[in-house]
């Protein structure tokens, strides 16, 4: 059984963490697979949207801490990411590079969460553009309960999603947050009955893949950088992005579809 299932259909690349006996705790193979698929999706024009999910009723229980990872650097017999055992800071930098590529991917990304999403796995979820969860999903910044600081980009993505006060509440206590509270706090986009999760995820994935790829990538960059910019620079960046969008075939199709009063058929070019 593969640790990671990768499926491609209609422009949607679905990555499924597949270790249900461990609640999909992320091991070295998972990180290597995710690393590879992110490189592929970024470069393949036929890959127009990325979906992350987990099998067996869980997204992921976080990092797999088995295999000699419970002690300090001196006692380590294996690594989180499959490379030779090395100092924790280098391991975390490698994980950080993978999550950074996910967050910066120039294609829309969707996290589909059933069951638990905790620790570094929550970091993966929050690095995605959109998050849909089942009504039995639960989220936790579990680190403090293991005597750990934050990783997985959570220190950056979490306060931007829920604000600093809620972020401190989640990280100081490490408690589970229900799907309903996560929705109310702004951590996720939608909560659906577990029986509907697969269908809603498929619909959102298809819609993202059918969108004008270049325009979506420009919108994504504009929104993600807005926290770091002043208003005038944001206006200038919008002007430059719109100039680029005007050069695409998808823009021409969008205008033509409007004039012909039909739905546009974007091709990502």
Automatic annotation (TrEMBL):
This is Enoyl-CoA hydratase/isomerase family protein. InterPro entries: ClpP/crotonase-like_dom_sf, Enoyl-CoA_hydra/iso, Enoyl-CoA_hydra_C. Belongs to the enoyl-CoA hydratase/isomerase family. GO terms for molecular function: catalytic activity. CDD domains: crotonase-like. It holds the Pfam family ECH_1. It comes from the Bacteria.
